[in-house]
Design goal:
single chain, alpha/beta, Inosine-uridine Nucleoside N-ribohydrolase, Chain A, nine-stranded mixed sheet, two-stranded antiparallel sheet, binds beta-D-ribofuranose, binds calcium ion
């Protein structure tokens, strides 16, 4: 039986690749995409999600729009994405669902006769709102896999990760909510699973609309990321959000360690940082699994084998 999956995205290029990967894997049954603000306004992230699904023929998957800002007022505004707001994909012919994403998440959880897997790859505002409105929401979730946070600071990686930094209060609520299985896929892991220009060529040559679009998107990402110190001059880029789906398909693709996470929610320069203690001496129920590393070659193989070929 495929695992029922809900993706909660702020869809830009890497969320779109995560959506396509989830749709193309027989182990996964994507039952809905909830859109959240983050890298772009929620109107755009919902529209981009619809466009992506429609392009690969998955007009059966509903898209719902959720929170348009952080759950608490205040905090400094974060810079949005350097990507254009609208993905270069033809407009969808359908509309987003009329329900609010948070209502839909709660209703889906209440109606569930079996648990589902939840993968947030944008700000955590929708998920924190669902948990706040209905603490029993967590019981319907078999596993939550969040793309967010960073362990190692002071090196080449950014000090803050945007999915957490857009809404730090929401991130802390989600961490504290009591989800049974919690995996945090950090920048430490996603920057290890970079895709190169040569690999984009392989992906493009694999043919099919999903592979071609993913190749185009990753090439656009490489043009930006190759200028960052973290890439060390290599023509390569992380595809952050897609690593969450790769983990679901093959958990051995990432290295997990037990960790205790505190999000810095205080106003000021460090707001949004994740303080992560790995392998705490005395484990507690609040500890989560932290993806700290990933196998780049196997991640790319999975992208290639999953996205290539006809629908
Ligand atoms: C995260 O922020 C967004 O840019 C990406 O889509 C990813 O979810 C990486 O920090
Ligand atoms: Ca994202």
């Amino acid at each position: 039986m495929p695992r029922r999956l809900v993706l909660d995205c702020d869809t830009g290029t890497d969320d779109a690749i995560a959506i396509m990967l989830a749709c193309r894997r027989p182990e996964l049954d994507l039952i809905g995409v909830t859109a959240v603000w983050g890298n772009h306004a929620v109107e755009h992230t919902a529209d981009n999600s619809l466009r992506t699904l429609d392009l690969i023929g998955r007009t059966d998957i509903p898209v719902l729009a959720g929170c348009s800002g952080p759950i608490e007022p205040g905090g400094e505004e974060q810079e949005g994405s350097p990507e254009p707001d609208t993905l270069p994909i033809p407009p969808s012919t359908r509309s987003i669902e009329s329900a609010h994403a948070v209502e839909w998440l709660i209703e889906t959880a209440r109606a569930a006769t079996e648990q589902f897997t939840l993968v947030p790859t944008g700000s955590l505002s929708n998920i924190a709102s669902a948990v706040r409105a209905d603490p029993a929401f967590v019981e319907a979730v078999e596993e939550i896999v969040v793309m967010g946070g960073v362990v190692e600071r002071g090196g080449a990686l950014p000090d803050v990760e945007t999915n957490v930094a857009y809404d730090p209060d929401a991130a802390q609520i989600v961490l504290d909510a009591g989800f049974e299985q919690f995996v945090l896929v950090t920048l430490d892991a996603t920057y290890r699973a970079t895709v190169t220009s040569e690999q984009c060529e392989l992906l493009r040559n694999a043919g099919g609309v999903a592979a071609e679009l993913a190749a185009e998107f990753i090439e656009q990402r490489i043009a930006r990321y190759r200028l960052l110190p973290a890439m060390g001059g290599r023509a390569a880029a992380p595809v952050h959000d897609a690593l969450t789906i790769a983990y679901l398909v093959d958990p051995t693709l990432v290295t997990l360690r037990t960790g205790r996470v505190r999000v810095e929610t205080e106003l000021g320069a460090t707001r949004g940082r994740t303080d992560i203690e790995l392998d705490p001496a005395v484990p507690t129920a609040a500890d989560v699994q932290i993806a700290v590393d990933a196998d780049a070659a196997r991640f790319f193989e999975l992208l290639l084998e999953s996205l290539g070929g006809p629908e």
